[in-house]
Amino acid sequence: MTIAGDPAKPASRVSHVPNDGTAEAARVEQARKEMLSDARPLKRTRIGADVVCEALLRQGVDVFFGYPGGVVLPLYDVLGDYPELRHVLVRHEQGGAHAADGYARVTGKVGVCLGTSGPGATNLVTGIGTALLDSIPMVAITGNVAASLIGKDAFQEIDINGITLPMTKHNYLVRNADELPRVFAEAFHIARTGRPGPVHIDITKDALQQETRATHPTEAEVVAGLPGFRPNFDGHPRQVRLAAAEIARAKRPVILAGHGILHARAWDELRAFAEKTQIPVAHTLLGIGVIPEDHPLSYGYMGMHGWKHVNRAIQSADLLIAIGMRFDDRVTGNVRTYAPYARIVHVDIDPVEIGKNVAVEVPIVGDAKRVLEALIPMVEAVDPAVRSEYFAELAAWRTESEASRWHGSGAWRDGLLSADYVAHRIGELTDHAATYVADVGQNQMWLARYTGFRQPNSHVSSGGLGTMGFGLPAAMGAALGRPDRETWAIVGDGGFQMTFQELMTLVQDRIPVKVALFDNKKLGMIRQWQELIYAGNYHSAHLLGPDFAKLADAFGIPARRATRPEDVDEAIRWAQAVDGPALIWFEIAEEQNVFPMMPAGKGLSDLIEEWGGVEE
Amino acid sequence: MSADADSTAPPPAHSAPPAHSAPPAHVAPPAHSAPPAHAAPPARSLPGSGPERRHVIAAIVNNKPGVLNRVASLMRARNFNIESLAVSHTDAPDVSRMSITLRGDDVLVEQATKQLYRLIDVLKVQELTTEPTVEHELALVKVRATDATRAEILKVVELYRGRVVDIADGSVIVEATGTEAEVDALIALVRGFGIKELVRTGTVVMTRGAQSIEEATKR
Questions:
Q1: A319 to chain B: closest CA residue
Q2: Residues A282-303: pLDDT tens digits?
């Protein structure tokens, strides 16, 4: 590429100047430009840092999240020459990793984050682990000290390669700029192909600075160079036939739809399959959105905090057709008592998941979309009348479960605002068409249960690692990934206080996230477990918080407080009308629990259903 | 063990692996047409809870820095219990070979092979437990020796086709090769004299016959 001497930025580039528009800001910006134009050579050679930028652009990256530091400065030194590559300066590397994760979840593309060596790298670790447990395609880039200093305990040196080794799909340490094109092409290929996951690239400072003429490989060359990475996409035809035979015999089948459907973009196929076979669809937490929740065959959310009727259906099923889910302990509870009458067909692209947590009768290793495409023509179309008895029972269970008191539990409990009502209203007032990003804990379960999801990839939640503090930064990435949708971050006061520094990133980069803060002045899920399992020993469950309206104001974010149900709709509409980020401080009931709940180690039939918090 | 050894010799080499004493854990409970209202449902089997036995796995891996670390880290993180792990070059300079022995039920070991396959640097994995194989390991044993016992040690070692590779004042070093059981047996016999030091390579394994895991590896 040519490096122009003119440092002028294209008009489309987002300004990074605070107080943009003021005379002072214009003066600072002018001074900065003059400084840059003096410092920047008119012509320079292509170095490793250029290769990184080229590779990101070749992979279709339009935005990435980073934080500079000593050893990655060579990269920041050339970034200005690639104006198409938007860099979002986060306030903490963990926020950058979660933002890349949120971006990947709503777009299906690979999210990219960057940190420097040492603490910059270790700060990324939580975000990388979050991506691993939820199979999110991500490339995390770190700088490291010069190759000659590696192993010498140099300033900001840590063995980050050793740290990320067990928590990535693959990782690299690059000591030579000539390797960068191949490594980046491989990393993106590995991150997005088969079961997605995070890949980490550690680059020594000298590799970023070296001059190089290495060219970028083609996708075919990348595949040929990775003989140990050959995911299987097509289900074995014999196994697909066996699955069709199981489906033909089943009287009480249930589809268990997971995140794999979203990764494979197989929601249309899932729907066609369910409709043709007339089989109800239950979904996992990360499977939210695989089928619109108002679809007649959508039966709901399963597992520890899932709907009772869904868990009942699973416990009485004679066939489970599990697609793109891993029978996580939050889904099965005690495996020995899980779905005791059911035979299991298990479709997953990762062979490891087959037989890992539960024994299955018909394993199919393959991509959810390809397997469903093969399966649909092999199954008989079922007349709904055939299942009338089964459907009547399911409908009765559902009515019973939804009518019970923990559902949409009304606005008032002893004069307090209830969280499920707020989650419900956010869903309604956004026409179920926004991106909804959860933090972790009770807020996550309220969102999952009561918001009502209609679209794939509209729900973002740290399911596997359960990373508190995920919500706000992930929403940042989700909003940049899908600017056509409103983005709501539903966070508790606990998780919010872990990462709220990213509010400043929202302001600086003008990212219009609407933050719905559920403040019960508690670590709510901790309090709930302590109430129900630890005999009310509420050690460290009470959480002092700041005046969140003043906090938001200090960041320059408009905020509003809502304490009564009649405030809720107005506050949501107010936030929607704000041009840019906004925060609503919902002061919710302090002792509301999420019910039903399956205690850890118990089975799906052992749900705690009683309202234990605020007495009625 | 050598054919000319006496009849009290340890178990013969290459003995067949123990037969399945119980059905594999993944056999499903019988299907029920509909759940009876009150009957106690049958318990679902738990993967990994079947009878344990020793398994041998061969893995062909890229000869790159850190690959051993990846394999070891995976085994530790997934809670697989490695008994031995031997690594070496193959005839191809860019490819190494690992022989891994571990204990667990069949489902667990299948998990281990599948987990190994997930590593990008692992090219081919083969479970060799039920295959006809040649399995060998090498041990060096430094045995305490006095003028009174030295001759007896040498005799025992010779009888078991071990080799004495070093004789010093007060000790001899015995080299033993053979299956794990054969090496165990020789070590047990010299233990009475006093073992000063012991090192074993871990089992290396190769299938009998013309088939080749290396040739079967997609390159």
A1: B31
A2: 999 999 999 999 999 999 999 9
Mean pLDDT within B157-169: 91
Tokens of A527: 């309090």
Each domain of chain A, given as residue ranges in start order, spans 49-224, 237-400, 407-587
By CA distance, what is A349's nearest residue in B?
B118
To the nearest whole Å, the CA of A213 is away from the closest chain B CA by: 24
ipTM beyond 0.90?
no
In angstroms, the CA A448 to CA B149 distance is 77
Does residue A608 or residue B207 have the better pLDDT?
A: B207
Cβ–Cβ contact A351 with B under 8 A: yes
pLDDT at A2 over 90: no
A226 touches chain B (CB under 8 A): yes
**Rounded to two decimals, what is the model's pTM?**
0.88
**Model confidence at A459: pLDDT above 80:** yes
- Is the CATH number of domain A407-587 3.40.50.970? yes
When divided into structural domains, chain B yields a total of 2
| CB contact set of B81 (below 8 Å; sequence gap of 6+) | B102, B103, B104
Q: Which residue has the tokens 């097509």?
A: A234
pLDDT band, very low/low/confident/very high, at B27 (cuts 50, 70, 90): very low
Q: B189: domain CATH number?
A: 3.30.70.1150
User: Where do the DSSP E strands lie in A446-486?
Assistant: 459-460
CATH architecture group of domain A237-400: 3-Layer(aba) Sandwich (3.40)
- Preceding amide of A596 cis, omega within 30: yes
- For residue A367, give the amino acid letter: D
